[in-house]
Design a protein that fits this description.
This is Peptidoglycan bridge formation protein FemAB. Pfam families: Acetyltransf_6. The chain folds into two domains: 132 residues, Gcn5-related N-acetyltransferase (GNAT) (Aminopeptidase, 3-Layer(aba) Sandwich), CATH 3.40.630; 127 residues, Gcn5-related N-acetyltransferase (GNAT) (Aminopeptidase), CATH 3.40.630.30. It is of the alpha+beta class and 359 residues long. The longest helix has 18 residues. Helix 3 packs antiparallel against helix 8 and helix 6 crosses helix 9. Strands 1, 2, 3, 4, 5, 6, 7 and 15 form an eight-stranded mixed beta sheet that branches. It contains twelve helices and 15 strands.
Length: 359
């Protein structure tokens, strides 16, 4: 009986768990930051430490990568970047140029500490709004956007099972690409990728990212970033830059030449990525973000993927409304038509100066 009482006394007198302390990541923290991200179920590829150098080097934006630490252990992280633009406003976002973001933590105390730190930083910077790009809702009382969804699906362990899991009409498009004799190649640079990507987004009337940005992605993430290019008789048909994280593959940037439509180049490209991922033992195909009501949204549904809502939440600081930079908005239609008529070379020069402010 006395031993039970002694244990009870020890528990009552035990010191309370230390409150998490929020710190800024520096170069010496990157390895343990990424170790936490790898292990934390809430974290995504876009919580990796490398995004700090990507955003600062490629776009020149100021970043704050903060972590909550207690007992010498990282318990949560948040990646923040500030964008100042006369055209598109002043924002603090987690994380611009990334589809997922927000706070990733393994306990509520760490999450709350990081949330308070991010909100205080937003007030100090006097931004229009603080934005979290969450997979799950966190702030029911904040304004939010329902513009985006993501598409994620299990990769089956057998290649043929994955082929048969594709709906019949879409499967026919994949087989069309196979019959056309399309070939898949892995590139070590972004030259062919950038040609296909820039041609594709110009056709859509969208400003292009710089070639340097994609080179920085490959340099920063190494084996976890991959370029796959589809060719036909040596001609570039389509290309995709994908990220690998844990047991997932995420095709993130892609595009096709005009000929791609005739030979089902994009259909074949995504199938090849799925097939190769299956052979590597990858478990999840993350088709990424799309806007509701777009061709990309319909394309992904045609593969049998179900849309999952993304929860982009905003704490309004100086702004009174959530920003509206949706290219589907009528106010952007004239700009899109002008951009489509612009020579590709000029669009590739001007585009990076615009897109860096969009985030």
């Amino acid at each position: 009986m006395s031993s039970i009482i002694e244990v009870a006394v020890e528990r009552r007198n035990a010191p309370a768990a230390a409150a998490p302390v929020v710190k800024l990541m520096d170069a010496g923290d990157a390895a343990r930051w990424d170790a936490f991200v790898e292990a934390c179920p809430e974290a995504t590829f876009f919580h990796r430490a490398g995004w700090q150098s990507v955003i600062e080097r490629a776009f020149g934006h100021k970043t704050w990568f903060m972590y909550a630490e207690a007992g010498g252990r990282i318990q949560g992280v948040v990646c923040l970047a500030e964008i100042k633009s006369r055209l598109f406003g002043h924002t603090l976002s987690s994380l611009p140029f990334c589809v997922y973001g927000g706070i990733a933590a393994d306990n509520d105390a760490a999450r709350e500490a990081l949330d308070k730190a991010a909100q205080e930083l937003a007030r100090q910077l006097d931004v229009g709004q603080l934005e979290y790009r969450n997979l799950q809702p966190r702030h029911a009382d904040w304004p939010s956007k329902s513009l985006y969804v993501t598409f994620r699906k299990e990769i089956l362990p057998d290649v043929e099972q994955n082929m048969l899991a594709i709906p019949k009409k879409q499967r026919a498009m994949v087989r069309k690409g196979i019959k056309a004799g399309l070939q898949s190649e892995i590139d070590t640079d972004v030259e062919r990728f950038f040609r296909a990507y820039s041609t594709s987004v110009h056709r859509l009337g969208t400003p292009v990212f710089s070639k340097r940005y994609f080179s920085i992605l490959l340099e920063t993430f190494g084996k976890d970033a991959e370029v796959q290019t589809i060719t036909l008789d040596g001609r570039i048909i389509a290309s995709v830059l994908s990220f690998y994280f844990r047991d997932e593959v995420l095709p993130y940037y892609g595009g096709g030449m005009a000929e791609a439509r005739d030979v089902a180049g994009n259909d074949f490209m995504y199938w090849e990525l799925m097939r190769r991922a299956c052979e590597k033992g990858v478990k999840v195909f993350d088709f990424g973000r799309s806007k509701v009501g777009t061709g990309a949204f319909d394309f992904k549904k045609n593969w049998g993927f179900a849309p999952q809502p993304l929860h982009y939440e905003y704490q309004l600081v100086r702004s009174t409304t959530v920003p509206d930079n949706n290219p589907l908005s009528p106010k952007f239609q004239l700009f899109i038509k002008i951009w489509q008529r612009m020579p590709l070379g000029l669009a590739n020069v001007l585009g990076p100066h615009i897109v860096k402010s969009l985030g």
